[in-house]
C-alpha cells in the first residue's frame, strides 16, 4: 500500500515517520497536517491530512474524510489563501490552523511580522493575547490547535505615513467579510471573541470599549447565533487595559470567557483525552 508523502518535499524525520503511517487511498490529493503525536495518525482510516510545513513540530489536527465541516474548512482555506481582492494590501492572506471549533477568535488584520511568519498573532500583540488566555487555562499551542483564528482582514494593510499599521479601509473590510461569513457557517461557533474595536464592530455597534468589554452579548451572523465576548486589542499601542475601567473590565471579560461552556469544552479536552487514552490502554 502506498503511503502519504509531503507534497512540499519535507525530509524532516518527524514528518517522514508520521507520514509513513498514513495510507493513501486512490489518487486523491492529500492534504496532510502532521502531528508528532502519532497515535492520531495511526487511528486514521481515511488519509485526509494536512501538512503544515512551517510548523510541523507544532500541534496537530488530523481529520477523517467523513468529517464534513473539517473538509469544508480545508477547502475554504485553500480558496482564501489565493484571494487577491484588495490591491492595496501588502501581503498574501495570513491564515490560522484549520480547526473546526466552537470558539472563534476574530482579530483585526495581521501586522508585518504576522505576514512574514504566516500566522496570526505571531508577534508582540500575540504574546500578550496568549498571556491573557494562559490565565484562563490554555496555552498558545493548545489555543492554536483548538480555536479557529479568523480576522476582519486577512492581509497586512501596510504602514501609515505617520507610523503604525494602516487600518483597513471599509471596501477592504467588505471584501473580506465573506470569508468570515463562511467560517462562521462552517464552525457554527457558540462563542465568538472579537479582539479590538474594528473586530467588535463587525458584530455590534461600539463607540467606546468601556461599554462592551466585560459583558457577554448575543451575536448573529450568517444565520448562526452565538455569544460574543469582546476583548481590547492586546497591542502595546493600546493603553485601555492598563487604566480604569479597562483594568477591571479586562479580567471580567476573561472570567466570562473562562466560564463559558464552549471554552470549558476546549480547555477540558486534555483531561478527557488523558482519561480516554487510559481507558483504551486498560481494555487492551
Ligand atoms: S484582505 Fe481579505 S479580501 Fe482582501 S485580499 Fe486579503 S484575503 Fe482577500
3D structure, described in words:
The protein has 284 residues and is an alpha/beta fold. It has two domains: 1-67, no CATH class; 81-268, Uracil-DNA Glycosylase, subunit E (3-Layer(aba) Sandwich), CATH 3.40.470. 38% of the residues lie in helices and 10% in strands. The chain is built from eleven helices and seven strands. It has helices at residues 13-19, 38-43, 68-81, 112-117, 124-135, 140-146, 170-187, 197-200, 246-258, 261-267, 269-283; strands spanning 48-49, 62-63, 103-107, 148-151, 191-194, 217-221, 224-228. The strands form two sheets. The chain has a five-stranded mixed β-sheet with strand order 4-3-5-7-6. The chain has a two-stranded antiparallel ribbon with strand order 1-2. A hairpin with a 2-residue loop joins strand 6 and strand 7. Helix 3 runs antiparallel to helix 7. The longest helix is centred in the middle third of the chain and has 18 residues, at 170-187. The protein is globular. The model is unreliable at 22-67 (pLDDT under 50). The protein binds iron/sulfur cluster (SF4). Residues 83-86, 89, 93, 153-155, 172, 175-176 line the site of iron/sulfur cluster.
Amino acid at each position: 500500500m502506498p503511503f502519504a508523502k509531503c507534497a512540499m518535499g519535507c525530509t524532516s524525520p518527524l514528518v517522514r515517520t508520521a507520514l509513513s503511517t498514513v495510507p493513501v487511498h486512490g489518487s486523491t490529493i492529500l492534504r496532510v497536517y502532521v502531528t508528532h503525536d502519532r497515535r492520531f495518525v495511526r487511528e486514521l482510516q481515511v488519509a485526509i491530512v494536512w501538512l503544515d510545513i512551517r510548523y510541523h513540530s507544532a500541534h496537530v489536527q488530523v481529520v477523517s474524510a467523513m468529517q464534513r465541516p473539517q473538509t469544508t474548512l480545508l477547502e475554504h482555506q485553500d480558496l482564501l489563501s489565493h484571494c487577491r481582492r484588495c490591491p492595496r494590501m501588502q501581503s498574501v492572506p495570513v491564515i490560522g490552523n484549520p480547526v473546526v471549533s466552537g470558539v472563534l477568535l476574530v482579530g483585526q488584520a495581521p501586522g508585518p511580522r504576522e505576514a512574514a511568519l504566516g500566522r496570526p498573532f505571531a508577534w508582540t500583540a500575540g504574546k500578550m493575547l496568549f498571556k491573557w488566555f494562559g490565565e484562563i487555562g490554555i496555552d498558545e499551542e493548545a489555543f492554536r490547535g483548538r480555536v479557529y483564528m479568523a480576522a476582519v482582514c486577512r492581509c497586512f494593510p501596510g504602514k501609515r505615513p505617520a507610523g503604525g499599521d494602516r487600518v483597513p479601509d471599509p471596501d477592504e473590510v467588505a471584501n473580506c467579510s465573506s470569508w468570515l461569513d463562511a467560517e462562521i457557517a462552517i464552525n457554527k461557533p457558540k462563542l465568538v471573541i472579537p479582539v479590538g474595536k474594528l473586530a467588535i464592530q463587525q458584530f455590534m455597534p461600539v463607540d467606546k470599549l468601556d461599554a462592551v468589554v466585560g459583558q457577554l452579548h448575543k451575536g448573529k451572523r450568517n444565520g448562526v447565533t452565538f455569544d460574543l465576548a469582546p476583548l481590547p486589542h492586546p497591542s502595546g499601542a493600546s493603553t485601555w487595559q492598563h487604566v480604569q475601567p479597562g483594568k477591571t473590565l479586562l479580567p471580567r471579560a476573561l472570567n466570562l470567557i473562562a466560564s463559558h461552556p464552549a471554552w470549558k469544552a476546549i480547555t477540558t479536552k486534555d483531561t478527557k483525552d488523558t482519561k480516554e487514552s487510559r481507558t483504551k490502554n486498560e481494555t487492551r
